[in-house]
Protein backbone atom coordinates (compact mmCIF):
# COMPACT_ATOMS: atom_id res chain seq x y z
CA UNK A 1 0.00 0.00 0.00
CA UNK A 2 1.41 3.35 -1.01
CA UNK A 3 1.07 6.32 1.31
CA UNK A 4 -2.44 7.73 1.10
CA UNK A 5 -3.95 4.79 -0.80
CA UNK A 6 -5.56 1.45 0.00
CA UNK A 7 -4.94 -1.67 -2.11
CA UNK A 8 -7.58 -4.43 -1.99
CA UNK A 9 -6.89 -7.80 -3.65
CA UNK A 10 -9.51 -10.45 -4.41
CA UNK A 11 -7.37 -13.59 -4.42
CA UNK A 12 -6.42 -13.61 -0.70
CA UNK A 13 -10.12 -13.35 0.23
CA UNK A 14 -10.91 -16.63 -1.55
CA UNK A 15 -7.76 -18.74 -1.77
CA UNK A 16 -5.73 -17.25 1.08
CA UNK A 17 -2.77 -15.96 -0.91
CA UNK A 18 -1.74 -13.64 -3.74
CA UNK A 19 -1.48 -15.58 -6.99
CA UNK A 20 0.43 -14.43 -10.07
CA UNK A 21 -1.89 -16.54 -12.23
CA UNK A 22 -5.09 -15.37 -10.52
CA UNK A 23 -7.70 -17.47 -8.74
CA UNK A 24 -7.81 -21.04 -10.15
CA UNK A 25 -11.59 -20.85 -10.39
CA UNK A 26 -12.63 -23.94 -12.34
CA UNK A 27 -10.75 -26.92 -13.70
CA UNK A 28 -11.70 -30.04 -15.62
CA UNK A 29 -10.10 -32.26 -18.26
CA UNK A 30 -10.26 -29.46 -20.83
CA UNK A 31 -8.30 -26.84 -18.91
CA UNK A 32 -8.33 -24.35 -16.04
CA UNK A 33 -10.12 -21.02 -15.86
CA UNK A 34 -8.52 -18.20 -13.86
CA UNK A 35 -9.71 -14.74 -12.86
CA UNK A 36 -8.74 -11.99 -10.42
CA UNK A 37 -9.54 -8.37 -9.62
CA UNK A 38 -8.04 -5.64 -7.46
CA UNK A 39 -8.72 -2.07 -6.40
CA UNK A 40 -6.51 0.82 -5.41
CA UNK A 41 -8.38 3.68 -3.75
CA UNK A 42 -7.21 7.12 -2.70
CA UNK A 43 -7.82 7.79 1.00
CA UNK A 44 -8.09 11.52 0.34
CA UNK A 45 -11.63 12.86 0.08
CA UNK A 46 -12.17 15.51 -2.57
CA UNK A 47 -15.20 17.56 -3.49
CA UNK A 48 -17.33 20.33 -1.99
CA UNK A 49 -17.70 20.15 1.82
CA UNK A 50 -21.33 19.85 2.88
CA UNK A 51 -22.45 18.83 -0.62
CA UNK A 52 -20.50 15.86 -1.98
CA UNK A 53 -17.16 14.13 -1.66
CA UNK A 54 -15.47 11.52 -3.81
CA UNK A 55 -12.58 9.06 -3.75
CA UNK A 56 -10.67 8.14 -6.90
CA UNK A 57 -9.87 4.49 -7.60
CA UNK A 58 -8.24 2.16 -10.11
CA UNK A 59 -10.18 -1.03 -10.95
CA UNK A 60 -8.44 -3.97 -12.64
CA UNK A 61 -9.62 -7.38 -13.82
CA UNK A 62 -7.64 -10.39 -15.06
CA UNK A 63 -8.96 -13.42 -16.99
CA UNK A 64 -7.08 -16.45 -18.28
CA UNK A 65 -7.72 -19.93 -19.66
CA UNK A 66 -5.12 -22.70 -19.69
CA UNK A 67 -5.83 -25.23 -22.46
CA UNK A 68 -4.89 -28.82 -21.63
CA UNK A 69 -3.24 -31.27 -24.00
CA UNK A 70 -6.46 -33.34 -23.85
CA UNK A 71 -8.56 -30.50 -25.24
CA UNK A 72 -5.90 -29.82 -27.88
CA UNK A 73 -5.74 -33.47 -28.96
CA UNK A 74 -9.55 -33.60 -29.16
CA UNK A 75 -9.54 -30.77 -31.73
CA UNK A 76 -10.64 -28.07 -29.30
CA UNK A 77 -9.69 -24.40 -29.35
CA UNK A 78 -9.93 -21.36 -27.11
CA UNK A 79 -12.71 -19.09 -28.42
CA UNK A 80 -13.18 -15.82 -26.59
CA UNK A 81 -13.08 -14.15 -23.18
CA UNK A 82 -15.17 -11.32 -21.77
CA UNK A 83 -14.25 -8.92 -18.97
CA UNK A 84 -16.55 -6.21 -17.62
CA UNK A 85 -16.48 -3.45 -15.02
CA UNK A 86 -20.16 -2.80 -14.45
CA UNK A 87 -21.20 0.33 -12.57
CA UNK A 88 -24.60 0.41 -14.28
CA UNK A 89 -26.29 -2.70 -12.87
CA UNK A 90 -25.77 -1.79 -9.21
CA UNK A 91 -26.55 1.92 -9.44
CA UNK A 92 -29.63 3.32 -7.73
CA UNK A 93 -30.70 6.95 -7.42
CA UNK A 94 -31.65 6.21 -3.80
CA UNK A 95 -28.04 5.55 -2.81
CA UNK A 96 -26.08 8.07 -0.77
CA UNK A 97 -22.85 6.61 -2.22
CA UNK A 98 -22.25 5.02 -5.60
CA UNK A 99 -19.47 3.88 -7.91
CA UNK A 100 -18.95 5.46 -11.33
CA UNK A 101 -16.34 6.39 -13.90
CA UNK A 102 -15.10 9.64 -15.39
CA UNK A 103 -17.46 10.68 -18.23
CA UNK A 104 -14.52 12.19 -20.14
CA UNK A 105 -12.86 8.77 -20.49
CA UNK A 106 -13.04 6.39 -23.44
CA UNK A 107 -11.45 3.12 -24.50
CA UNK A 108 -7.77 3.90 -24.90
CA UNK A 109 -7.93 6.93 -22.60
CA UNK A 110 -8.81 5.90 -19.06
CA UNK A 111 -10.37 2.55 -20.02
CA UNK A 112 -7.81 0.01 -21.15
CA UNK A 113 -7.04 -1.80 -23.37
CA UNK A 114 -8.30 0.00 -26.46
CA UNK A 115 -9.94 -1.90 -29.34
CA UNK A 116 -7.26 -3.65 -31.41
CA UNK A 117 -6.95 -6.50 -33.90
CA UNK A 118 -4.23 -8.92 -34.95
CA UNK A 119 -2.16 -8.38 -31.81
CA UNK A 120 0.01 -10.85 -29.93
CA UNK A 121 0.10 -8.80 -26.74
CA UNK A 122 -0.26 -5.41 -25.11
CA UNK A 123 0.88 -3.49 -22.03
CA UNK A 124 -1.05 -1.94 -19.16
CA UNK A 125 -0.02 0.45 -16.42
CA UNK A 126 -2.39 0.13 -13.48
CA UNK A 127 -2.77 2.17 -10.31
CA UNK A 128 -3.46 5.74 -9.30
CA UNK A 129 -0.01 7.04 -10.22
CA UNK A 130 0.95 10.16 -8.25
CA UNK A 131 0.72 9.37 -4.55
CA UNK A 132 -0.23 5.77 -5.26
CA UNK A 133 0.89 2.53 -6.79
CA UNK A 134 1.84 2.24 -10.45
CA UNK A 135 2.52 -1.22 -11.85
CA UNK A 136 3.35 -1.79 -15.51
CA UNK A 137 2.97 -5.27 -16.95
CA UNK A 138 2.62 -7.04 -20.29
CA UNK A 139 0.00 -9.47 -21.59
CA UNK A 140 1.28 -11.99 -24.16
CA UNK A 141 -0.44 -14.68 -26.19
CA UNK A 142 1.38 -17.98 -26.88
CA UNK A 143 3.93 -17.79 -29.69
CA UNK A 144 2.25 -17.39 -33.07
CA UNK A 145 -1.18 -16.57 -31.60
CA UNK A 146 -2.99 -13.27 -32.17
CA UNK A 147 -6.27 -11.89 -30.87
CA UNK A 148 -8.63 -8.99 -31.45
CA UNK A 149 -10.25 -6.80 -28.79
CA UNK A 150 -13.66 -5.18 -29.11
CA UNK A 151 -15.23 -2.87 -26.51
CA UNK A 152 -18.54 -1.42 -25.37
CA UNK A 153 -19.74 0.98 -22.66
CA UNK A 154 -23.42 0.11 -23.01
CA UNK A 155 -25.71 0.42 -21.18
CA UNK A 156 -24.62 3.74 -19.79
CA UNK A 157 -26.14 6.69 -17.96
CA UNK A 158 -24.82 10.14 -17.08
CA UNK A 159 -25.63 10.93 -13.45
CA UNK A 160 -25.82 14.61 -12.52
CA UNK A 161 -25.23 15.81 -8.98
CA UNK A 162 -24.50 19.26 -7.56
CA UNK A 163 -23.59 20.59 -11.00
CA UNK A 164 -21.25 17.67 -11.79
CA UNK A 165 -21.45 14.60 -13.99
CA UNK A 166 -20.40 10.99 -13.53
CA UNK A 167 -20.96 8.01 -15.81
CA UNK A 168 -22.42 4.71 -14.62
CA UNK A 169 -21.65 2.33 -17.48
CA UNK A 170 -21.07 -1.31 -18.17
CA UNK A 171 -17.49 -1.23 -19.53
CA UNK A 172 -17.02 -4.45 -21.49
CA UNK A 173 -14.03 -5.97 -23.30
CA UNK A 174 -14.36 -8.98 -25.62
CA UNK A 175 -11.11 -10.77 -26.39
CA UNK A 176 -11.49 -12.89 -29.55
CA UNK A 177 -8.77 -15.53 -29.71
CA UNK A 178 -10.04 -18.57 -31.72
CA UNK A 179 -6.85 -20.57 -31.56
CA UNK A 180 -5.57 -23.83 -30.14
CA UNK A 181 -2.31 -24.61 -28.36
CA UNK A 182 -1.40 -27.57 -26.19
CA UNK A 183 -0.74 -26.82 -22.51
CA UNK A 184 -0.84 -23.06 -23.10
CA UNK A 185 -2.32 -20.06 -21.30
CA UNK A 186 -4.41 -17.31 -22.94
CA UNK A 187 -4.31 -14.35 -20.50
CA UNK A 188 -6.01 -10.95 -20.74
CA UNK A 189 -6.56 -7.95 -18.49
CA UNK A 190 -8.75 -4.83 -18.37
CA UNK A 191 -8.99 -1.73 -16.23
CA UNK A 192 -10.74 1.54 -15.42
CA UNK A 193 -7.95 3.98 -14.66
CA UNK A 194 -9.94 7.08 -15.69
CA UNK A 195 -10.08 7.07 -12.63
CA UNK A 196 -13.05 5.21 -11.24
CA UNK A 197 -14.93 7.10 -8.55
CA UNK A 198 -16.71 6.47 -5.25
CA UNK A 199 -19.10 9.42 -4.97
CA UNK A 200 -20.74 10.36 -1.67
CA UNK A 201 -23.75 12.69 -1.71
CA UNK A 202 -24.79 14.88 1.26
CA UNK A 203 -21.51 13.97 2.92
CA UNK A 204 -21.49 13.64 6.72
CA UNK A 205 -18.04 12.94 8.26
CA UNK A 206 -19.64 11.00 11.14
CA UNK A 207 -21.43 8.54 8.84
CA UNK A 208 -20.11 5.35 7.22
CA UNK A 209 -20.85 4.76 3.52
CA UNK A 210 -20.96 1.75 1.21
CA UNK A 211 -20.83 1.58 -2.59
CA UNK A 212 -20.93 -1.50 -4.81
CA UNK A 213 -20.26 -2.45 -8.42
CA UNK A 214 -19.66 -5.61 -10.43
CA UNK A 215 -16.61 -7.06 -12.14
CA UNK A 216 -17.50 -9.97 -14.43
CA UNK A 217 -15.55 -12.63 -16.34
CA UNK A 218 -16.39 -15.21 -19.01
CA UNK A 219 -14.61 -17.81 -21.13
CA UNK A 220 -15.92 -19.73 -24.14
CA UNK A 221 -14.07 -22.66 -25.67
CA UNK A 222 -14.71 -25.41 -28.19
CA UNK A 223 -13.56 -28.35 -26.09
CA UNK A 224 -13.60 -30.97 -28.86
CA UNK A 225 -14.24 -31.12 -32.60
CA UNK A 226 -14.75 -34.24 -34.71
CA UNK A 227 -15.20 -33.67 -38.45
CA UNK A 228 -18.50 -35.00 -39.85
CA UNK A 229 -19.60 -35.96 -36.35
CA UNK A 230 -20.02 -33.39 -33.55
CA UNK A 231 -18.32 -30.71 -31.47
CA UNK A 232 -18.62 -29.69 -27.82
CA UNK A 233 -18.44 -26.30 -26.14
CA UNK A 234 -17.99 -24.97 -22.63
CA UNK A 235 -18.86 -21.52 -21.28
CA UNK A 236 -17.65 -20.54 -17.80
CA UNK A 237 -18.66 -17.28 -16.20
CA UNK A 238 -18.18 -15.39 -12.96
CA UNK A 239 -20.21 -12.44 -11.68
CA UNK A 240 -18.59 -10.70 -8.72
CA UNK A 241 -19.58 -7.70 -6.68
CA UNK A 242 -17.18 -5.37 -4.92
CA UNK A 243 -18.53 -3.65 -1.81
CA UNK A 244 -16.39 -0.70 -0.77
CA UNK A 245 -16.83 0.61 2.78
CA UNK A 246 -15.79 4.24 3.40
CA UNK A 247 -15.36 5.39 7.01
CA UNK A 248 -14.48 9.11 7.18
CA UNK A 249 -11.65 9.96 9.58
CA UNK A 250 -12.13 13.68 9.00
CA UNK A 251 -13.61 15.93 6.35
CA UNK A 252 -10.62 15.18 4.10
CA UNK A 253 -9.51 11.59 4.78
CA UNK A 254 -11.18 8.20 5.03
CA UNK A 255 -10.42 4.65 6.06
CA UNK A 256 -11.36 2.20 3.31
CA UNK A 257 -12.10 -1.52 3.34
CA UNK A 258 -13.66 -3.84 0.81
CA UNK A 259 -15.18 -7.25 0.28
CA UNK A 260 -15.68 -9.21 -2.93
CA UNK A 261 -18.71 -11.46 -3.33
CA UNK A 262 -19.19 -14.15 -6.00
CA UNK A 263 -22.73 -14.78 -7.16
CA UNK A 264 -23.58 -18.48 -6.94
CA UNK A 265 -20.27 -19.62 -5.45
CA UNK A 266 -19.00 -22.06 -4.27
CA UNK A 267 -20.28 -23.54 -7.55
CA UNK A 268 -21.69 -27.07 -7.54
CA UNK A 269 -22.01 -29.70 -9.03
CA UNK A 270 -18.60 -31.25 -9.62
CA UNK A 271 -15.98 -30.08 -9.11
CA UNK A 272 -17.10 -28.65 -5.77
CA UNK A 273 -16.07 -25.27 -4.36
CA UNK A 274 -15.12 -23.73 -7.66
CA UNK A 275 -15.02 -19.93 -7.72
CA UNK A 276 -17.42 -19.38 -10.60
CA UNK A 277 -21.07 -18.46 -11.02
CA UNK A 278 -21.88 -21.05 -13.67
CA UNK A 279 -20.71 -23.52 -16.29
CA UNK A 280 -22.68 -24.59 -19.37
CA UNK A 281 -21.61 -27.29 -21.83
CA UNK A 282 -23.12 -28.08 -25.23
CA UNK A 283 -22.87 -30.73 -27.92
CA UNK A 284 -23.68 -29.98 -31.57
CA UNK A 285 -24.05 -32.22 -34.63
CA UNK A 286 -21.83 -31.51 -37.66
CA UNK A 287 -23.49 -32.45 -40.96
CA UNK A 288 -21.16 -33.97 -43.53
CA UNK A 289 -21.40 -33.70 -47.31
Could you explain how this protein is built, in words?
The strands form three sheets. Strands 1, 2, 3, 4, 5, 7, 8, 9 and 16 form a nine-stranded mixed β-sheet that branches. It is elongated, with a radius of gyration of 20 Å. It is mostly beta strands. 43% of the residues are buried. The protein has one domain (5-285). It has helices spanning 11-15, 69-73, and strands spanning 5-9, 23-27, 31-42, 46-48, 52-67, 77-86, 97-101, 106-107, 110-112, 116-119, 121-126, 135-140, 147-152, 156-161, 164-179, 184-201, 209-226, 230-248, 254-262, 278-285. The termini are far apart. It contains two helices and 20 strands. Helix content is 3%, strand content 61%.
Topology:
Elements: E1 5-9, H1 11-15, E2 23-27, E3 31-42, E4 46-48, E5 52-67, H2 69-73, E6 77-86, E7 97-101, E8 106-107, E9 110-112, E10 116-119, E11 121-126, E12 135-140, E13 147-152, E14 156-161, E15 164-179, E16 184-201, E17 209-226, E18 230-248, E19 254-262, E20 278-285
Parallel strand pairs: 8-9
Antiparallel strand pairs: 1-3, 2-3, 3-5, 4-5, 5-16, 6-15, 6-17, 7-16, 9-16, 10-13, 11-12, 13-15, 14-15, 17-18, 18-19, 18-20
Which short descriptors sum up this protein?
single chain; 289 residues; mainly beta
| Euclidean distance between termini CA atoms | 62 Å
What is the strand tally?
20
Strand content: over 45%
- Count the helices. How many? 2
Overall mean confidence score, pLDDT:
92
Low-confidence runs: none
Shape, principal axes of CA atoms: elongated
Rg calc = 20 Å
Task: Give helix % range.
Answer: under 10%
Instruction: Characterize the main sheet.
Output: 9 strands, mixed
H-E string = EHEEEEHEEEEEEEEEEEEEEE
Q: Which structural class do the helices and strands define? A: mainly beta
Count of structural domains: 1
